[in-house]
Design brief:
alpha+beta; 4 strands; globular
Length: 110
């Protein structure tokens, strides 16, 4: 089975792949944040696991500007240099993947 994660602000798929691949190795920062919010039934693991808390402005669903819709809340975006950040905000990423898997994501830097 395949799993697709959709950015509802722009109704674009941000990551797609086999369920196990996406859950075991999420590539897109939005997917990573979503999966980090799922509770773990083991109390020891739940207390010690790392959650990704998103900060920043929510994108407007009516804004049709180019660029990644997740850039304003993306933890990876904050670590990029100025030229890379400009690419995120100015160029809409396409679904791409590595050659060794069917998993694809819409991030310029993953």
């Amino acid at each position: 089975p395949e799993l697709s994660l959709i950015d509802f602000a722009k109704l674009r798929i941000v990551e797609i792949g086999a369920v196990d691949e996406v859950f075991d190795n999420p590539q897109h920062p939005y997917t990573q944040a979503l999966l980090s919010a799922i509770p773990v039934p083991d109390p020891v693991v739940e207390r010690t696991r790392k959650r990704i808390v998103l900060r920043g402005e929510l994108p407007s669903p009516i804004d049709s500007a180019a660029g990644c819709r997740f850039a304003s809340r993306c933890p990876l975006h904050l670590t990029l240099d100025v030229a890379q950040q400009a690419r995120c905000t100015g160029e809409t990423p396409e679904l791409t993947g590595r050659g060794d898997t069917d998993q694809r994501n819409a991030c310029h830097f993953r």
